[in-house]
Amino acid sequence: MRLVGGVVAARAIARLIRTLGRGGGTSAPGLVAEWIDPAMLTRLTSRLPHGSIVVAGTNGKTTTSRMIADVLTAHGHKVVHNRSGSNLVRGVVSAFAAQASLTGNPGGDVAVIETDEAAFPEIVRLVRPRLVLLNNLFRDQLDRYGELDTIARTWKTSLASLGEETTVLFNADDPGLTAITRDLAAATIAFGLCERKHTLQLLPHAADAATCYACSADLHYSRIYVSHLGEWQCPSCGVKRPDLDVVGRDVELAGVESLAMTIDQHGESDRYEIGVPGLYNAYNTLAAVAATRHAGVPHETVRTALESFRSAFGRIERVSYRGRKLTLALVKNPVGFNEVLRMLTAATGALTVPTLIAINDLHADGRDVSWLWDVDFELLARGDGMLGATGLRGADMANRLKYAGVAEDRIRSFPTGLAAGLDAFVNQIPDGEQAYILPTYTAMLEIRKTLADRGAVETFWQQ
């Protein structure tokens, strides 16, 4: 009876929230359902014939989990998925309540659950997943998560509670993830890149794992791909990146449009093409392929599903608005921002497309915006593209661009209000031309709401 009451209440609240235009109802319904039946998530996930896949990481978890869900759906599974990106326990419960029947059927045969870094231990405890996918660990929202080591310790404790029935799939290019996945009772699968073309010359100053987790000596990298992700070893104690079970190589990047890569797994080499750009999305693709192939999906099904995949809302999302072609790219921490800038400037070494940077400092963004000084905005000093700043901390952003060496005649300070800031920016873009918008999380949601209200995009919970 508790389960039925939780499902009914959650659905009613979600319907009310949407009717009143107060949002997507992707979080609050789960809070009420949890209050009515604290065991609701455990009850429903235990009834999934193919179990649950939990996806965690600082960057890329929304995109990766959507890739996995799309591939599993193409294979004939009925997937329960918190597709809106609401990834605290309440958001996961809301997603299950929306799909479950009043008789306690979860409404699917497998779940793909994206989880917030801080919520990961509790979700693992409640769900007892068959597969855990760990994408990366980067510094993010220190006022909310604390230092990176704090998250790593809580994850390690959580992973140690898993038994042989669980498999942990982890990015071995990340020294921190390698450290916390050693000596587990659960089976482990290591994935990573073996790439010669797309490498960095030096470890970025914003990298978070420059020292060995075993002995604290400086790590040596033979190749660096993204931040501290790469082929690493400790010259002091001998710890190194483990042998890879799943390898990504021969990556081809097509600007802001797409990528292609070869993935070696189970003695097979398969080529994948996908409509999302950037080396960071090569990691997301590699993780999704490794997860779905482990789940028994044939290569051809995986390849076909990924060929038709398009980015999640706000994450390299292409929008036609007032005759202009806008590309939205979420930026929420130094590593993610640096990779977006790397992608936008890769072709010419400079930024030539008008760009609006929207910075908020609400709770979901992190209240401390000092992280902007760890972003390599100096990359933008080259080029002639206009750079606009808006949002609650738009003035801080404009100031950061000035100190990065961007010419003052390229910097535009637009209204703090995001709807007004968006319109002022678009007014300066010639009809038919392209522009980029780089927002933090809540800024992205507000800009998309403005675009949705004006008919340019779907609301995020409908995608």
What do these coordinates show?
There is one protein chain. The protein is 34% helix and 21% strand. The longest helix is centred in the first third of the chain and has 18 residues, at 2-19. The strands form three sheets. The protein has a nine-stranded mixed β-sheet, with helices on both faces. The protein has a six-stranded mixed β-sheet with strand order 12-13-17-14-15-16, with helices on both faces. The protein has helices spanning 2-19, 28-36, 40-45, 61-74, 89-99, 120-127, 142-145, 148-160, 175-180, 279-294, 299-307, 334-345, 394-403, 418-427, 441-453; strands at 52-56, 79-81, 110-114, 131-134, 167-171, 187-193, 220-226, 229-233, 246-254, 258-265, 268-274, 315-321, 324-329, 355-358, 387-390, 411-413, 434-439. The model has no long low-confidence stretch (mean pLDDT 92).
- What composes the largest sheet? 9 strands, mixed
Report the sheet-strand fraction.
Answer: 15-25%
Mean pLDDT: 92
Oligomeric assembly: single chain
Ends: how far apart? 32 Å
Q: Helix segment count?
A: 15
Q: Based on CA inertia axes, which overall geometry fits?
A: globular
Classify the secondary structure makeup into a structural class. alpha/beta
CATH topology assignment of the largest domain: UDP-N-acetylmuramoyl-L-alanine:D-glutamate ligase
Enumerate the spans where pLDDT stays under 50 for 5 or more consecutive residues: none
- As a percent range, the share of helical residues equals 25-40%
Total domain count: 2
What's the CATH class label of the largest domain?
A: Alpha Beta
CATH architecture term of the largest domain: 3-Layer(aba) Sandwich
Radius of gyration: 22 Å
Output the CATH homologous superfamily of the largest domain: Mur-like, catalytic domain
Total number of beta strands: 17
